[in-house]
Amino acid sequence: MNAPRRRPLRRHIPTAIWIIGIVALTAIVLYPLLWMVSASLKPNSEFGSNQGFFPENPTFDNFVKVMQGIAGIPTWKFFLNSLLLGVGAVIGTVISSSMAAYAFSRITFRGSKILFAAMIGTLLLPFHVLIIPQYIIFRNLGLIDTFWPLLAGKFLATEAFFVFLMVQFIRNLPRELDEAARIDGCGHGRIFFSITLPLIKPALITSSIFAFIWSWNDFLGPLLYLNSPEKYPLPLALRIFNDQTSTSDYGATIAISVLALLPVMLFFILFQRFLVDGVATQGLKG
After folding, report:
1. Which of 62, 96, 125, 278 has its CB 3.0 to 4.6 Å from that of 251, i.e. a possible disulfide?
2. b vs e for 231-254, b when ≥16 Cβ sit within 10 Å of the residue's Cβ?
3. Which of the 8 DSSP states describes residue 107?
4. According to the 3-state scheme, what is the secondary structure of 5-23?
């Protein structure tokens, strides 16, 4: 038998170039994250003097200082506040947006197209335009310095992006499933909970990922509505590190930033396989 012919070397060159390019691009994308982890191990004396990537005298004192708390408030309290806001945002967004999306995609009522177009139009409205009227409303209701201003909108389907995402997903589901359920005597409630929700799980998880990340990283909302430091989430806790002394504690600030990033990365890694399926459907025509 003849020995198999070896492929010419020039056929492997494009593949090698492609792999090297992907590795280089990945390194560029991950560099800020790796730098932040490395900088969290630097003592404060090296900030400004050590321009290198690696610390000369690595130490965990920054993390020890962070875990001791800020201004008499334990660090776990800030994590708990952020977790409460993040989980509340996920629950509210999933429940309200899925119900609104089902109404727009499966229920025929007068003015549905106009209302849907108006809802999509809110995506063009900057958040800063709504700050003053929303603050006045919550102040008159006596809800300032509570979590309600940060969570109420999540339970009222005010996030048009998530509603639109789920509408596009539901519109691609076969209507024959709804018709078969109606023949068996099911109403909209039974169809929604027993048929629609299980089939739009990728869209629900995609919305959950974005809702959690946006709530976890939100700085302006808590800054406006929260006055008590013990109610601050992590983004405001970072500000305390820079404001409590005349000189900013860069090491502790970066250390708590690394700790604040871990839940977001874990949440994303656990559910990222559903992300592509969910986002890919928002541009499809039902």
Report:
1. 62
2. bbbbbbbbebbeeeeeeebbbbbb
3. -
4. CCCCHHHCHHHHHHHHHHH
* Rounded Cα gap, residues 128 and 118, in angstroms: 19
How far is 145 from 229, CA to CA, in rounded Å? 10
Nearest-angstrom CA–CA distance, 186 and 192 = 10
* 47: Cβ contacts below 8 Å, ≥ 6 apart: 39, 250, 251
Asked if residue 55 has pLDDT above 50, the reply is yes
Residue 207 CB contacts under 8 Å (≥ 6 apart), including other chains: 93, 94, 97, 162, 165, 166, 278
Strand partners, 70: 73
In Å, how far from its chain's centre is CA 216?
7
The CA distance from 261 to 255, in Å, is 10
Say how far apart CA 154 and CA 90 lie, in whole Å: 8
Question: H/E/C letters for each residue in 197-252?
Answer: HHHCHHHHHHHHHHHHHHHHCCCHHHHHHCCCHHHCCHHHHHHHHHHCCCCCCHHH
The model's pLDDT over 32-45, given as tens digits with 9 standing for 90+, comes to 888 888 888 888 77
Q: Extract the tokens encoding 172.
A: 């691609």
Is pLDDT of 1 > 50?
A: no
Percent of the chain with pLDDT over 90: 27
Which tokens in the block code for residue 103? Answer: 């109404």
| Measured distance between the N- and C-terminal CA atoms of the chain, rounded to whole angstroms | 58
- CA 206, 208, 211, 217 dihedral sign is negative
Q: Tell me the C-alpha to C-alpha distance, in Å, between residue 226 and each of 58, 139, 144.
A: 36, 12, 7
